[in-house]
Automatic annotation (TrEMBL):
InterPro entries: Aldolase_TIM (IPR013785), Alpha-hydoxy_acid_DH_FMN (IPR012133), FMN-dep_DH (IPR000262), FMN_HAD (IPR037396), FMN_hydac_DH_AS (IPR008259). FMN binds at residues 90-92, 119, 141, 169, 284, 306, 339-343, 362-363. Its cofactor is FMN. This is FMN hydroxy acid dehydrogenase domain-containing protein. The active site is at H308 (proton acceptor). It comes from the Eukaryota. Belongs to the FMN-dependent alpha-hydroxy acid dehydrogenase family. Coiled coil: none annotated. It comes from Coniosporium apollinis (strain CBS 100218) (Rock-inhabiting black yeast). Residues 227-237 have a biased composition (Polar residues). It holds the Pfam family FMN_dh.
Length: 420
């Protein structure tokens, strides 16, 4: 049995010893709309699956007789000693999973000494999350809106609340096509709010219903005229329907505002760096060496190799497969993080061995939240922390910085094994 890491109070839950089991427990706790929204990928979901399966292509070469009695799983981020090289990725609308939503996640992260990313489309305010996080440094994920004023206000609030960085999501110039979300006519229940935009511009955010053809059906209780104007707004920028788009106007909903097809390296990164200083500016959603070099060229502070958990471009490369070329291109000039498909402590080890400085997890935290709120998120983090610690020890490493490609081999489809 793995002994709990220092300072971590969580005890084992005998009904839930793996992230796979956590996923199963969570599935029965969520309503269908939420489960589908959280769990699905874009289109056929092949990239979502490949993100996970990519980890099985690598095996660990363990070293022995190395006195591993003093394992240190911690990793430095924004000057903070995180308990392991892993953070909680920004995921939208966490109050769908549990009434305490992002606040429960923040409290769990504080308990487990793990950094948290907050989505622009959170259902809790960024100030309340910062307060619940205590001394843990946080990151605000940004969808940079075409209406700059909304973004400007959000950035100013994040600065004031002590956020250390903004992560600009760059893989969402258009929203990916999530068929279950469309079929379910996903909408935020009326008692929940996209919390970080003013009341007046947020007023009908909860009433958004998309049908995938670019039109929205009339939400229950919503007046006909409101529904009609909502339809007009969404038809141009929701799930892409081939129609000519118009810049969004009116209430901020994720269907109208998350996607911003106008984003570009030249104009927007410089603007954001100026606006966000002294917070760091990272880009989340890099998948190629070419874009990694552009990120360095435009002086961003860090990169997250990500395909949005397979929710944007289906058919894109698994993030673990994209990681080596990005890490090689960056050559240590700025930190390179990765997310997508991390479901076990050995996955963290493999990602680090392939050049990542740090990994982030999305869905496993949502499953923890759905299972038992704050306690469930702590459990999720505890499982991964214990597995990672055990992996380090059994592989013969005691320091995160020592994990490198010498610890891995790659196994191809025919079973041929190659050193990296
Ligand atoms: C339900 C859900 C909502 C998400 N919301 C956001 C978001 O608001 N902003 C963002 O940049 N990424 C978002 N992501 C992507 C995550 O930040 C992360 O890239 C992804 O979940 C990692 O893959 P994993 O779920 O396999 O760990 C979301 C992912 C999920 C599953
Ligand atoms: C607000 C949404 C666009 C959140 C998101 O990024 C997602 O659902 O993947």
């Amino acid at each position: 049995m793995v002994s709990p890491s220092k300072g971590q109070k969580q005890t084992l839950d005998l009904n839930c010893l793996t992230i796979k089991e956590l996923e199963k427990h969570a599935a029965v706790m969520m309503d269908k709309q939420t489960r589908d929204y959280y769990n699905e990928g874009a289109d056929s979901g092949s990239t979502l699956l490949e993100n996970i399966e990519a980890y099985a292509k690598y095996r660990i070469r363990p070293r022995v007789l190395r006195d591993i009695s003093q394992i240190d799983t911690s990793a430095s981020i924004f000057g903070f000693r995180n308990s392991l090289p892993l953070g909680v990725a920004p995921t939208a609308m966490q109050c769908l999973a549990h009434q305490d939503g992002e606040i429960a996640t923040a409290r769990a992260c504080k308990e487990m000494r793990v950094i948290m990313g907050l989505s622009s489309f959170a259902t809790s305010t960024l100030e309340a999350v910062a307060e619940a996080s205590g001394d843990i440094p946080n990151v605000l994920q940004l969808y940079l809106f075409e209406e700059r004023d909304h973004s400007r206000k959000l950035i100013a609030r994040a600065k004031k609340a002590g956020y250390k960085a903004v992560f600009l999501t760059v893989d969402t110039p258009m929203l990916g096509r999530r068929n279950l979300e469309i079929r379910n006519q996903f909408k935020l229940p009326r008692h929940l709010k996209i919390a970080n935009f003013d009341e007046d511009i947020n007023s009908d955010a909860s009433a958004t219903v998309m049908d995938g053809t670019g039109s929205s059906s009339e939400p229950q209780g919503q007046k006909k005229s409101e529904a009609a104007s909502s339809t007009r707004r969404q038809s141009s920028v929701g799930y892409h329907d081939g129609e000519k788009r118009h810049p969004p106007s009116g209430p901020i909903t994720f269907h109208t505002h998350a996607a911003n097809p106008t984003l570009s390296w030249e104009r927007d990164i410089a603007w954001l760096k100026k606006e966000a200083a002294p917070m760091e500016v990272w880009v989340k959603g890099i998948a190629t060496a070419e874009d990694a070099l552009l990120a360095v060229h435009h002086s961003v502070d860090g990169i997250v190799v990500s395909n949005h958990g397979g929710r944007q471009l289906n058919g894109a490369l698994a993030t673990l497969d994209a990681l080596p070329e990005v890490a090689a291109a960056v050559g240590g000039k700025i930190p390179v993080h990765v997310d997508g498909g991390v479901r076990h402590g050995t996955d963290i080890f493999k990602a680090l061995a392939l050049g990542a400085d740090f990994v982030w997890i999305g869905r496993p935290v949502l499953w923890g939240l759905a299972y038992k709120g704050q306690q469930g998120v702590e459990l999720c983090l505890k499982l991964l922390a214990d597995e990672f610690r055990l992996c380090m020890g059994l592989a013969g490493t005691i320091k995160v910085e020592d994990i490198n490609k010498d610890y891995l081999v790659k196994v191809d489809k025919s079973g041929f094994i190659s050193r990296l």
